[in-house]
């Protein structure tokens, strides 16, 4: 399958994420843009109004290399599966999940004073929700076999064994669980009266040409 065919088969939001990630990787590889201008830095955002960092910190997976291709694979395989499956015909809901999840991640990084890229945490959010909505699926990751709800934890373990930080994964898992609870669990409780904390705004559905 060619690159154009692959892009054509991806659902719209995932396609945009992949294209943005590839564009930033190409830009950094060709020295058109520097990673130093993309990462999350609250001082520069607040005092110098470099607001683009609020977006680029979610879209940069590093220059071309093993981490980039691994994250892109997970994005294409699991995240597109989530959008095409549980969110089939509901790309506005999927996009709103990312917006709400991204907002929670930004809040956490602000509170804890971290400045870095949170693209990995965004992927963990999507894989966590995918796993929760496909609880019976079994997956082989390298030499580990697990059920879908535990996939994100396996990714975190593999990253830790390879010398990576667990912090990004824990943020992604925490945000993913928060979304899952308030979207899939809490509305079913009698006391909720059907309330959905992460209900998609009607304006966004209108922009995406979708109906309730």
UniProtKB/TrEMBL annotation:
<dbReference type="InterPro" id="IPR007599">
    <property type="entry name" value="DER1"/>
</dbReference>
<feature type="signal peptide">
    <location>
        <begin position="1"/>
        <end position="16"/>
    </location>
</feature>
<feature type="transmembrane region" description="Helical">
    <location>
        <begin position="51"/>
        <end position="73"/>
    </location>
</feature>
<dbReference type="Pfam" id="PF04511">
    <property type="entry name" value="DER1"/>
</dbReference>
<protein>
    <recommendedName>
        <fullName>Derlin</fullName>
    </recommendedName>
</protein>
<keyword id="KW-0732">Signal</keyword>
<keyword id="KW-0256">Endoplasmic reticulum</keyword>
<keyword id="KW-1133">Transmembrane helix</keyword>
<keyword id="KW-0812">Transmembrane</keyword>
<dbReference type="GO" id="GO:0006950">
    <property type="term" value="P:response to stress"/>
</dbReference>
<feature type="transmembrane region" description="Helical">
    <location>
        <begin position="94"/>
        <end position="117"/>
    </location>
</feature>
<dbReference type="InterPro" id="IPR035952">
    <property type="entry name" value="Rhomboid-like_sf"/>
</dbReference>
<keyword id="KW-0472">Membrane</keyword>
<comment type="similarity">
    <text>Belongs to the derlin family.</text>
</comment>
<dbReference type="GO" id="GO:0005789">
    <property type="term" value="C:endoplasmic reticulum membrane"/>
</dbReference>
<comment type="function">
    <text>May be involved in the degradation of misfolded endoplasmic reticulum (ER) luminal proteins.</text>
</comment>
<feature type="transmembrane region" description="Helical">
    <location>
        <begin position="137"/>
        <end position="161"/>
    </location>
</feature>
């Amino acid at each position: 399958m060619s690159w154009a065919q692959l892009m054509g088969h991806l659902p719209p939001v995932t396609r945009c994420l992949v294209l943005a990630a590839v564009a930033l990787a190409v830009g950094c590889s060709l020295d058109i843009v520097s990673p130093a201008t993309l990462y999350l830095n609250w001082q520069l955002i607040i005092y110098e109004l470099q607001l683009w960092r609020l977006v680029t910190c979610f879209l940069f997976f590093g220059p071309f290399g093993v981490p980039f291709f691994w994250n892109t694979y997970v994005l294409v395989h699991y995240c597109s599966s989530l959008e095409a499956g549980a969110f089939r015909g509901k790309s506005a809901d999927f996009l709103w999940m990312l917006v709400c999840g991204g907002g929670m991640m930004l809040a956490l990084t602000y509170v804890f004073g971290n400045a870095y890229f949170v693209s990995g945490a965004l992927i963990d959010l999507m894989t966590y929700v995918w796993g929760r909505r496909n609880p019976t699926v079994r997956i082989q990751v390298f030499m580990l076999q697990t059920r879908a709800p535990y996939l994100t934890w396996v990714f975190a373990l593999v990253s830790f064994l390879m010398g990576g930080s667990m912090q990004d994964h824990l943020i992604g898992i925490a945000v993913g669980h928060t979304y899952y609870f308030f979207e899939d669990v809490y509305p079913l409780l009698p006391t909720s009266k059907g309330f959905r904390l992460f209900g998609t705004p009607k304006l966004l559905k209108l922009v995406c040409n979708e109906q309730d």
